[in-house]
């Protein structure tokens, strides 16, 4: 099977790798159909590292993945041929964070495409059944947005965005757009700004009200979501 393997900054190779062998108990074999490119993938591609996570050996990129079930445990509800989204972090299940329901904080989480764990840009992956989600009628392209959308949903919940509140989103990249859509889903009145015209247009294509930077100055917002990750954005 083919895989997109990052060897060093600016050095991605499409390589033939052996398919995963016999399925371990509790795992699902998924034919990968769509993988989003996250900012973290771009960091590894550009710099070969994110902080303490350093690329030391070749690694498959991609963690925003969706695909089609090829084989699932007989006692799971998943069906062969079903579209699924993968949750990319596999926690230990035993530490204090995992045991108190905060498994996203597990210090030994195995996160796809975080060195040295291979990511999902390969034709087939095996993944623990508890972290494989049936995607209903969604296409794999749509289902691959589940992970970045979850960022927006979490942000909106954490801010307690309420029906009718005014929310400003700074930055109309994928995370900004998905956070804005999550806020709209909560019934907020959302405006999103970006300096880049193509990003504003992409936001408008989803039905959002997108504007140039500065056009929202002087207006009052109950919540501001900073989604550029830059000093200037803040
Ligand atoms: Zn991501
Ligand atoms: Zn843990």
TrEMBL record:
InterPro entries, alphabetized: ADH-like_N, GroES-like_sf, NAD(P)-bd_dom_sf
Residues of the Alcohol dehydrogenase-like N-terminal domain: 25-133
Origin superkingdom: Bacteria
Pfam families per record: ADH_N (PF08240)
Keywords: Metal-binding, Oxidoreductase, Zinc
Cofactor(s) the protein requires to work: Zn(2+)
UniProt GO MF annotations: metal ion binding; oxidoreductase activity
Similarity field: Belongs to the zinc-containing alcohol dehydrogenase family.
PANTHER family registered for this protein in UniProt: SORBITOL DEHYDROGENASE
Protein name per Swiss-Prot or TrEMBL: NAD(P)-dependent alcohol dehydrogenase
Species the sequence originates in: Sulfobacillus benefaciens
Taxonomic lineage of the native organism: Bacteria, Bacillati, Bacillota, Clostridia, Eubacteriales
